């Protein structure tokens, strides 16, 4: 069964140029119809905002032909999720809380080299921020965040360095006049308007569809036919795909006549990114996020063990078995009922339900290792002639792999 439609929200605050024309929009996350930020883990908020921008409302719906200013956390930067956005109409706004370590600086260089513009939010001079300042085109200055004398010194120094300035938190006519006279190019604040609320009704596809989509794109070769079949069966997924196609870095302006055409236009890499984004969030909807990490860890671990146990030809089956080992928890059904609509092979199905060989014993090791049931682990290692240290490395790799993909 599909879940009931839910109302989702976003906000956009216009950014004006010197002629008071709208030059862009800062896109803001909203958890409810209350038009204000209500807190939360910044990484989660950033990921949800990106998901709603690309898959929910669609970027073009939110910004039209203007520029999107996207708030970026450390996670969005280093995991490269900005690649989902079109460089020509995106400014990546680095939050003031980001620590400019080597990984962040490297990500910002890649971002700039790819054609994106970088803005620093609520900037104040510090030695630590120098590397990011050198990579930024825009600097946002909080007009109310520091004494006027200090702000004037900052403005002069930034202009001398060639940076373009945006005055934020402009709330009065006098502040706007002062910012104009100080050479600011862009302006943002309640003097112009408050963030505009956007809302829509969203329908999440069946979690089983998400599981099958993940499997279709995580194999060595992409199963394009299966992806097409799954997307065509669900109007919500079809709409999300088309929104993504027109929002992604390779935004497509021509008419799209079929789901297959949309997938072919995106290409393998973007399909994998789209599925990972939509499926991970779909699986986690209403569920503890850790459950998704567990599913992906088991899948990757089982896939690694296939080669170690002499079952290379069954690696895809083992990945699928690991992924579906939490299908009961994700779908709120008994495991047998959760597996019923998937059309699984008898071997995968029996491995999951009763631990039948040849896949079942490997899956048993996966679950025992996760639980720390070392007596069972020892027995499994002996039966399958596996080296404990090699299996431990495979598990560590699986955990890192899963956590990276479970972070939207």
Automatic annotation (TrEMBL):
Q: Which domain of life is it from?
A: Bacteria
Give one Pfam hit by family name. Answer: HDOD
Q: Which PROSITE patterns match?
A: HDOD (PS51833)
What InterPro entries does UniProt report for this protein, alphabetically? dGMP_Pdiesterase_EAL/HD-GYP, EAL_sf, HDOD, RNase_Y/CdgJ
Question: Which residues belong to any copy of the HDOD domain?
Answer: 203-390
In terms of Gene3D superfamilies, this protein maps to: EAL domain (3.20.20.450), Hypothetical protein af1432 (1.10.3210.10)
Q: What is this protein called?
A: HDOD domain-containing protein
